[in-house]
């Protein structure tokens, strides 16, 4: 079966969002363009890591260019997107591997999210070989979401993604574990229940 590539170059909208209540949220990347929408599921830590790496990569682009780039230092306010995900949210696949690249000629960021694949191997060496073959297989590899963004769009995506990640349950001021609405058993309080 040939690889399914969901290409958005450029997207009308590319955002990270959630479905569900804090503590029970599912995280998604969603790209929209010309009436089509692709949603892929991923973990909260993957969203945070992607947003942080995008900002780091853009900061490096600005630094190396000496400020002579179209990449803004911060997310432009006019690109702020606080809207919900387009519904219905239909998961195309669960993300396993993500990649970022910067195309200096077109001044565009490439974001790729590839479906998770469970590999079976008898040894670490066989596993590494199977993984390498899978990554090189452009024709028959796992499904892939590929999005090309301007520097401004990438900054706006990163800001929203971090906001979404931080919009969850507040941390306990003593132990930093998430507080549930009904409280939690705080290890710093010797097991006593701590309310919100």
Describe the structure.
This protein is of the alpha+beta class and 196 residues long. The protein is 26% helix and 30% strand. The chain is built from three helices and nine strands. Strands 1-7-6-5-4-3-2 form a seven-stranded mixed β-sheet. The chain has a two-stranded antiparallel sheet with strand order 8-9. Helix 1 (44-65) links the parallel strand 4 and strand 5 (91-103). Helix 1 (44-65) packs antiparallel against helix 3 (151-166). It is globular. The relative contact order is 0.21.
**Cα-atom radius of gyration:** 19 Å
Major sheet strand order: 1-7-6-5-4-3-2
- pLDDT below 50 for ≥5 consecutive residues: which ranges? none
Helix count equals 3
The helicity comes to 25-40%
H/E element order: EEEEHEEHEHEE
Shape: globular
Largest sheet, described in full? Answer: 7 strands, mixed
Average the pLDDT over all residues and give the rounded result: 89
Q: What structural category do the secondary elements indicate?
A: alpha+beta
Distance between the termini: 51 Å
Describe the structure concisely for a colleague.
This protein has helices spanning 44-65, 124-136, 151-166, and strands at residues 5-8, 13-19, 26-33, 36-42, 91-103, 108-115, 144-150, 184-185, 193-194. With 196 residues, it is of the alpha+beta class.
């Amino acid at each position: 079966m040939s690889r399914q590539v969901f290409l958005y170059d450029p997207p009308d909208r590319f955002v990270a969002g959630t479905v569900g209540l804090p503590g029970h949220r599912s995280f998604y990347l969603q790209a929209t363009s010309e009436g089509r929408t692709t949603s892929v599921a991923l973990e909260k830590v993957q969203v945070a890591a992607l947003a942080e790496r995008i900002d780091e990569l853009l900061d490096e682009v600005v630094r190396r260019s000496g400020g002579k780039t179209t990449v803004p230092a911060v997310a432009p306010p006019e690109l702020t997107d606080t809207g919900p995900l387009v519904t219905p949210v239909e998961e195309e696949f669960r993300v396993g591997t993500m990649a970022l690249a910067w195309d200096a000629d077109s001044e565009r960021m490439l974001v790729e999210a590839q479906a998770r694949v469970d590999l079976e191997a008898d040894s670490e060496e066989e596993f590494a070989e199977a993984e390498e073959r899978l990554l090189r297989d452009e024709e028959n590899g796992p499904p892939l979401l590929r999005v090309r963004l301007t520097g401004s769009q990438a900054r706006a995506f990163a800001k929203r993604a971090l906001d979404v990640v931080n919009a969850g349950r507040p941390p306990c001021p003593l132990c930093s574990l998430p507080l549930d609405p009904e409280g939690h058993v705080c290890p710093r309080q010797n097991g006593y229940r701590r309310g919100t």
